[in-house]
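User: quick one, sequence for these tokens?
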């Protein structure tokens, strides 16, 4: 029993350190994945990915089924404190881009770009009666 309690205490103390040990590129990938969930919800309501990333915060013209609340209250900055770059490729595909530590395209390690290629979720067709 004492061993189990000691293990639990060590695990609780170590957990924040393990989280802090993630590299900024890893955090950027996690953040991009989280932002993509809001884009997926936008797609379900508007039947296309946003024209611009801000559309998940403020209702764009042309999407009457948006919301009723924002999909996110604000778009977080990337781990280096900069705005995400967003590119809509077509009505179902997009890219989220963080330029890494140096803020320039290309690079290695912390300077490498983080590119998230997103695709709208598949929505099953409704069966007609």
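Assistant:
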């Amino acid at each position: 029993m004492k061993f189990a309690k000691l293990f639990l205490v060590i695990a609780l103390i170590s957990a924040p350190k393990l989280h802090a040990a993630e590299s900024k590129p890893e955090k950027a990938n996690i953040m991009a994945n989280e932002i993509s969930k809001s884009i997926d919800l936008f797609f379900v309501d508007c039947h296309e990915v946003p024209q611009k990333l801000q559309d998940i915060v403020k209702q764009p013209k042309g999407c009457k089924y948006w919301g009723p609340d924002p999909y996110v209250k604000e778009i977080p900055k990337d781990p280096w404190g900069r705005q995400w770059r967003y590119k809509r490729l077509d009505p179902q595909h997009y890219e989220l881009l963080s330029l890494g530590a140096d803020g320039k395209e290309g690079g290695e390690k912390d300077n490498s770009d983080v590119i998230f290629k997103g695709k709208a979720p598949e929505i099953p067709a409704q069966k007609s009666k």
